[in-house]
Amino acid sequence: MGRPQQYSDKEIDEFLAIAQEIGIGKAIKELGYPKSFDTAQAWAKNRGVNVNVDPVMARAKQFDLLYKEEDMLHVLQEGIQDWFEYMSSNKGEIAPDDKKKMAEALSKYMNSWLLLKGKANEIKGTVEKTEIDLTIEEFMRNAERIDKAKSEENAG
């Protein structure tokens, strides 16, 4: 890792003067320094300078909370719950292609959940099935039986 870049007072003053006119992001692009938005904000704060914030950055900051880990976990939990409700309420009425899509959706939800929880999302070694695993397997077997019975009924 390199040492932090040292900037002269003149460079910082020049940056802040431009940033007051056109915003931090545009000033960084125009001057080529500092390397981070946070450094520029720190300079402004330390010198008591009020700078314009780029509209894009201001809008992005509004959505910061949405992307916090706990909020993402909440969204994933709702998605898994919606998946389960859909599968439960449409027993036997789901086409094979739709089942495949639903299985892929659940897999994405679960992998994202595990990733956010800091757990591996690749299974290696032996895995013990939990009660939830067994319940899902039973649910899927029952759905397949119902589909098969309906297919035979329609064919006959």
**How many beta-strand elements?**
0
Strand content: under 5%
Rg calc: 27 Å
Biggest sheet details: none
Structural class: mainly alpha
List the helices and strands in order: HHHHHHH
- Global geometry: elongated
Instruction: Work out the oligomeric state of the chains in this entry.
Output: single chain
Number of domains: 2
State the helicity in percent bands.
55-70%
Mean pLDDT: 79
Number of continuous helical runs = 7
Distance between the termini: 73 Å
Uncertain regions spanning at least 5 consecutive residues = none
Structure characteristics:
single chain, 2 domains, 156 residues, mainly alpha
Structure report:
The protein has 156 residues and is mainly alpha-helical. The protein has two domains: 9-62, no CATH class; 67-155, no CATH class. It is 69% helix and 0% strand. The longest helix is centred in the C-terminal third of the chain and has 25 residues, at 131-155.
